[in-house]
Amino acid sequence: ATISYDRRDETVAVLHALREKCHMDLVVQTEEMASLQRIKDHESKLAKFMDVKGQKRCMRDLLDRKETRRDERHNALQNQLVRNEEILNRVWKMSGTARINDFVAAYTQREFENYTTFNLIAALHFECETLNDSIIRLKDDI
């Protein structure tokens, strides 16, 4: 019984020593992982910094080109605005009205007259086509 008890004590002591060793290994490995993670994070920050630094050099050129394109578009829009204002002024002069309501009323009336004329011409054209077909049939009959 004493031998068994001594063996059990030895086994418990070995288990306790192994647990302590495992715990110490875990602590050391955890510290090592934290250290490696800090190094990785630092390297990542350096890589990002270098990427941004390189991009800033390229970005200056891109920003200059973008600003030039924006200025060109702005100038084109300004020119278009001037042309549109000139056209609008010519329309106002041709209409002979100074108020927009008078202009809209005159435009609506002209549009109605033009639509009516178009319908009349379309009806006359259809009637001419019908008469031509009738004449051709009559000639064939004669």
From TrEMBL:
Organism field: Photinus pyralis (Common eastern firefly)
Domain of life: Eukaryota
Domain ODAD1 central coiled coil region: 1-142
InterPro entries on file: ODA-DC/CCD (IPR051876), ODAD1_CC (IPR049258)
Protein name per the record: ODAD1 central coiled coil region domain-containing protein
Keyword annotations from UniProtKB, A to Z: Coiled coil
